[in-house]
Each structure stands twice: as C-alpha cells, then as structure tokens.
Here is the input.
Amino acid sequence: MSNITCENLPNLVSSFVDTLVDFSVSGGLFLPNPDSTSPQNGPDTIITRYPTPDRLIAIGDLHGDLGKSKQAFKMAGLIDDSDRWVGGSSTVVQIGDVLDRGDDEIKILYFLEKLKREAQKTGGKLITMNGNHEIMNIEADFRYVTRNGLKEFEDWANWFSIGSQIKSLCAGLEKPSDIFYGIPLVCKNVPRKYQHAIRARIAALRPDGPIARRFLSQNVTVLVIGDSVFVHGGLLKYHVDYGLNRINEEVRDWINGLMGKFAPAPPYCRGRDSLVWLRKYSNELAKDCDCSALEHVLATIPGVKRMIMGHTIQEVGINGVCDDRAIRIDVGMSKGCINGLPEVLEINGNSGLRILTSNPLYQNKGKAYLDADNKEEFAYLFPQNAPKQVEVKA
Here is the structure.
C-alpha cells in the first residue's frame, strides 16, 4: 500500500474533500449520486416546457426557512419523516425565493438538490425557479439577508477554503482558484464585523460563484407544464415575444459567468415590469389585477390556461383571480415573512386544482377553503372584495 499517493488517487481525494465540505455546510447531508443516464443531468440542459404529469405540485417562496420547507414537502406527501423522497413520479415546481429573510439558505439549496436526485431515481422531477431574491443576491443586493444568513455563508467560505487548501497539496489536481478574486478587501458601508461574511456571500453567489454555478444555474426563470405557465412575478407580452426558452438560456449563462463575474442581470429580470418583480396579477384586491393583460399573455402561449406565480404574499392563502387564470401561491410561510401556515397547490392530470393546507380550519374539510357548502361559515375570513379562493375540482 506504500505506493498509493495523491498522484494516483487525485479524483478520490477531490471527491472526499467535496463530500466533507458538503456534509459540513449542508447540516449533515450526503448527496446521492446523480443519475448519469438522465438527459437532464447535463449542466447545459434547459427544458422550458414539459407535458402534463399525473400529479403536479407547486410550492411557493421558502425564504430561508428549512423547517417550513420540509413541512410543505411532507404535507404534499413528497417526503417521509426521514426527509427522503416518497413522491414517486410526481413533478414539483418550487417557484423561487429560496434566499433571504431566513437563516437556512444554503441548507435549503442542498435539501432541494438531494430531493432532485432522489426524485429522478423514481421517475419524479423537482424543478426550481429563479425569484427576484435569487437575482438580487447574484447582483450582491443583500438588503434582506439575516445575520445568521451571513454567518451561514461565512462558514461555507471557511469550509470551502479548507477544501481548496487540501486539494492544492495534492499533485495531479489543478490548484483551485481564489474564490475572493476581484472582490474588494473592504466593502463600503459594511460594519467591520460583517466584512468577511459579506465578501463570502458575494464570492458564493456572484456570477460563476460556486454556489450560484452549482445550484442557481440549474433554475429556470419561466416554465410551462401542461396547461400552466409558472413564473415568479408575472409575464407580459413582450416577455413571451422575446422567447421563453431564450430567457432561460440567457439567465443561466449570466449565472454561469459567461457575461462576466460582475455583470448585471438581463433587463427582463430587473425593474417592476420584469418577470421576477411584476405584481400586475398579484394585488390583494381582485379588482385591481390586470385581467386583460393576463388574458393577452396567456393567449400568446399555446395550450396554456393559467399563470401560477409567487412573489407577493397572500395572507388569505393560495388563491385565484381573473376566473382562476392567475393563481398566487406565496403564502409567506417563512418565519422571516409572516410565518404563514404552509400550503401547496396540487394540479391533477385532468387540470383539477386543489390546495393542500396545514391550516386546521380547513385541513379536515376534505376541500381547500371555500366551497358551496362552506361559504357562509367562513365568509368573515374573506371580505367580498378579497381575491377569490381557488375552487376545488375533484
């Protein structure tokens, strides 16, 4: 055994170091090996449109709350008590905004990656999307980060650097690049005690940063599954005219650093009319939602009946407006938002919509929120001018 050195075991050393770093920063997860036979496994694969699955689950904004994230997946019958995938061939869409407001951002990214690999082995899919907070963080806009969120990235950078140092000692492995390259030693207007943490977060999440490249570059920004189009904020006609697949490809290339390590986001991801910021269809008052613009957009996407979006917290829970052509699924479940009770949207193959909720007022009713028999009983919760709840269709 004395002839075994790093020179003839570089790949084993690299794999061991990567596993050590992953285990240390993910809260103790060992990621299953990805299915190398899957056509979706390649880093350059972008799929914008999927056929109708037998069961489709949509999950709203998670915002750094790992506990609530697990509750949502468990409530939908997607994971067991050991957090293992039991969703079979279900397709799941997480509509973005994993980052900010909570303390477990990296842990959720690893959790979702673990579930992606487990789902793949049973014919299921977990598709993650970009929200405005992913875009903001890639651009180093950290207005909504928590102190513990900063600490999580600081710890990641320390472990990542240790791993890089170990790899640099092994002949046969390329010397890792400095993740802090090009980042100022002192960030303006940042207290001294947070300087290293801010630099670590920039290093991880900027275009071509290790966390951005590994996790966020897998996200799509707009997605069509069957007769539903998913987007974090909302779509306008000019987004569709520009090209949905083109948007996904350009955002992926930006995250991967092909436009430069400090390049701004594409213009359709910035500003109030962008895909990830739009609120035209999310107003609390149904009468203030632009149903005309929505109908115009849906008419330009063949076969699509509804738009499903997150971004704007719906204090009344998941609901629909514009004759249920706009479905809003951000219930503010994170403790960093309004600490809302987890809810998810289920779409069966026959286009029936159902809300799965942990709200004890409704979870034993067998239906989501209001139906013909319950309207009077719960009317006080939903004023007449409030958004209409999604009707349950068996």
Remarks:
- Residues 136 and 142 are 7 Å apart (CA to CA).
- The longest strand covers residues 343-348.
